[in-house]
Write a structure and sequence with these properties.
The relative contact order is 0.16. The protein folds into two domains: about 80 residues, no CATH class; about 150 residues, Rossmann fold. By secondary structure, the chain is of the alpha/beta class. A seven-stranded mixed β-sheet has the order 4-3-2-5-6-12-11, with helices on both faces. It contains six helices and twelve strands.
Length: about 240
């Protein structure tokens, strides 16, 4: 089945590729890092949690195991099929984040995977407004943002717990403050690549975008500032 790719996005390698260039099989194989620990330490035990852009459930699974009531959202049906297989305790919703309307609110809304760095300003604001519309007034929004040197410190690589070598090969300007980023995922037996567009955001720009969506930073949760807890502001 052919997939219409998003502009500037591309993926190579075996198996299904989503419109933003992600390979489903890569996210089935990748291990989980510190994300569950960061999330668990930042929110109340047993909270209801809306996970926007859940992928194949890499983080969904440990969150459900730790007692959170997770509703997992992704625009890729292939990704959600993987979530249903590995995390039967999670509710799944297929659809784009920017137009999501579940008509209910959650203790926690999570926008991870650096989605806040989408190239289009209007899409970013729609993502953040979806977060604001779905979080309880006394709840919080958890956002994962890029590190300050993410686009300058290239090429670089890290070893994933799964045994995969994850490389960021390049981050080249394509205009209007946006970079085209090429990532490579090398397992002992297979290799994938993903090309995607990302917009670097300074801390001030990031906080301004939050404010425009009715959110405000409550705390930077990690020393590198990549995980943030925001609170809804009065409408």
């Amino acid at each position: 089945m052919s997939v219409r790719m998003r502009e500037g996005h591309q993926g190579t390698g075996p198996g299904a590729i989503t419109p933003d260039g992600c390979a489903v099989d890569v996210y089935l194989r990748l291990g989980v890092g510190i994300e569950p620990d960061v999330i668990e330490s930042a929110v109340p035990p047993g909270a209801s949690l809306l996970e926007l852009g859940c992928g194949a459930g890499r983080v969904t699974e440990p969150l459900v195991e730790r007692g959170f009531a997770v509703t997992a959202v992704d625009e890729s049906e292939e990704m959600l099929e993987a979530v249903r297989e590995r995390v039967p305790g999670a509710e799944t919703v297929c659809g784009p984040i920017e137009s999501l309307d579940l008509a209910r609110r959650f203790d926690v809304v999570m926008l991870a995977s650096y989605l806040v760095h989408t190239a289009e300003h209007s899409e970013r604001q729609a993502f953040l407004e979806t977060c604001r519309d779905h979080v309880r007034d006394d709840g919080c929004v958890l956002i994962q943002r890029e590190g300050e040197d993410w686009h300058r410190n290239v090429p670089r690589e890290r070893q994933d717990p799964s045994g995969c070598t994850v490389r960021i090969l390049s981050a080249d300007p394509v205009g209007d403050g946006v970079n085209s980023v090429v990532a490579e995922y090398v397992f002992p037996d297979l290799r994938w690549t993903q090309t995607f567009r990302s917009r670097p955001l300074s801390k001030a720009e990031f906080e301004r975008c939050l404010g425009e969506a009715g959110l405000a930073v409550d705390a930077y949760l990690t020393d590198d500032g990549t995980w943030v807890r925001a609170r809804p502001t009065p409408r």
